[in-house]
Amino acid sequence: MTDFAEHSKSRRAGKRRRVVLLLALCAAASGAGAEPRAAASSQDGKYFDAEGEPTYKVDASGKVDWYTYSGFLRYSAECLRCHGPDGLGSSYAPALADSLKKLSYADFLSTVANGRKNLEGGQEKVMPTLGLDKNVMCFIDDIYVYLKARSDEAVGRNRPPAHDPKPKAWEDAENACMGAPS
Amino acid sequence: MKRLVTSLISVSALALNATAFANESVMKGSQDPKQWVIQAGTYDNQRYSKLDQINETNVGKMAPAWSFSTGVLRGHEGSPLVVGDIMYVHTPFPNIVYALDLNDEGKIIWKYEPKQDANVVPVMCCDTVNRGLAYANGKIFLHQADTTVVALDAKTGKVTWSVVNGDPKKGETNTATVLPVKDKLLVGISGGEFGVQCHITAYDIESGKKVWRAYSTGPDDQILFDPEKTTSLGKPVGKDSSLKTWQGDQWKTGGGCTWGWYSYDPNLNLVYYGSGNPSTWNPKQRPGDNKWSMTLFARDPDTGVAKWVYQMTPHDEWDYDGVNEVPLVDQKIDGKDRKLLVHFDRNGFGYTLDRTNGELLVAEKYDPAVNWASKVDMDRSSPTYGRPLVVAKYSTEHNGEDENSQGICPAALGSKDEQPAAFSPKTGLFYVPTNHVCMDYEPFRVSYTPGQPYVGATLAMYPAPGGANMGNFIAWDATKGKIVWSDPEQFSVWSGALATAGDIVFYGTLEGYLKAVDAKTGKLLYKYKTPSGIIGNVMTYQHKGKQYVAVLSGVGGWAGIGLAAGLADPHAGLGAVGGYAALSNYTALGGTLTVFALPD
After folding, report:
1. Which range, of A57-66, B463-472, B566-575, averages the lowest pLDDT?
2. Residues B202-206: contacts with CB within 8 Å, 24+ apart?
3. Fewer Cβ atoms within 10 Å of its own Cβ: the N or the C terminal residue of chain B?
């Protein structure tokens, strides 16, 4: 557990540094960070954009990569009860499909891992600290790419109609992170 | 077990001598229709008032008399109390209590605001609702989100005692009201989505000292069962009735939470309530019947020992918590007077049982959409007597992990959730707020970490096939198990009903309407749009000779999650998105009490 937290913390710190740098470089060129994240490369069924951050892949029929699909499942199990179906928000937590138009990958990771409190104005809004929750953190890239796809309007509401098969690498990573099935 | 029971009895015997019975004050208060001293109005949870100034002929002229903002934005469940000339209003987290002077235009006499760690907020499933206060023996009882139970002096708001019932760091929280019974205060707990081993606890009403605690799952001395005397469907449950139905020590994270309503029969001296879902939502990970989750309990309030139990949904595969209210009525079945209890379960069946012994008399679907089970087996000689006959196609256990079971009705929020039904002894009918929503359910593997959610399934919810209405307000004959009339509602009805001797029934809607309908026909007689969606319960009282009807509005709760964004039908094909109007097009957040009366 501790190892796991440490690992995600150091990974986060590294990411943040790189993202800040990239933002500085890109700022002049693009102006905004809300560009659709086209997949530039892939490894074992996981897709990455030009900056090397995880992203989704959707084909013309609406079929998605496994990570995006898994992200839909985990989002719906772990985040929906506050953030609403399909990343659309609820009466007390923001629509993450909108949030990810601005929020960077690094800020996404740190918000989920560390949580956030907003106790002003008669509304106690608290984003829980999920850094130690394996059911979230073992699938955080999956959730990220799913929400990214939602915010880019690359996938619609509800379960994606079709998806790639579960890659072996994903299954190995799940077992390593969650502990082997009993 | 015997020894435990005897020692418990002697403990309570001591207490008996020392204290005035709370039930005297509650009994007196609830027999006086001018007051509303516990959330359900009366111990039998009928939510019926003898007041009849406002009735089916004049309710059309009813109008708001005064209103009060609670200053809190999140979902407002439960209702205010009226004790003498004071009204007590509660709020969701941070659980403020206001005492309002009815003799002085609702002026605030005192306000109590507990200091609670905001970290409890995200541990609460589905918004930070609280289902209200209870009054007994000069005290107002509040069970806070962080599980602190406080007794406030009803006149001054000063804390007379307080006790901590659970630990939010382990996922233990509270949304429920409490029930004062005799010299005890009965208190439940939430945390089914966090793998809590849930329980009901009795505290001494004068001191807050713990008297007994009965878990829903575990060994006999923890669930307070007497293997020879506690019965289920007429037979003794036997030794280790819960342990035998779990793999290993999974009962320790078994759920079976107790966040619903409690009723009490003073003549039988039995308390009734239901327990919630077993943890996790992935049924494959917890083989067995998972007793006594999803169960109706009848317990002796003095000792906590269970007289009888009935498990409605063995081995839950759909999150059909069994916590809904258990109103007690005396009606004729097949010409014979029976002491009954009635229960509209999340699983879509309306149950009628003999409350003296737990005999199952009626179990019928109260929403025709219900499809996960064909029926409840009523054949006494059958090995599956009393069990629902599950349809394989809708069994998430049968279809397995990582398989999406589609078109299951009702959805996890049930054909009805916590919002309580009302009963009118004049018509002999129940008035039931219902959900008409179905779901897809895909279970998958999860790992348990104390204090972290332990869910294990992905759900999609959408209106039941064949219409766009997501709710109905129905009248139900519990002696026959038949719907008498049904009023469709655009959204799920998430407000507790009130029936009165004026032959009218009140309820609220998610758009924010307070409605009054004819108790015999369901015909709409009055509606008024309050400032926000209603998930609170309607109550009534009389002050200075005049009848008032009051309700809290303030949308939120489970309903605020799915309905804020609108429910989309995943089977309608691509492009059909947004076919069902979002609740956010009708109402916005805000806690307000609205009080109605006839014009002078």
Report:
1. B566-575
2. B202/B301, B202/B304, B203/B149, B203/B163, B204/B15, B204/B19, B205/B19, B205/B22, B205/B136, B205/B137, B205/B139, B205/B151, B205/B180, B206/B18, B206/B19, B206/B137, B206/B161
3. C
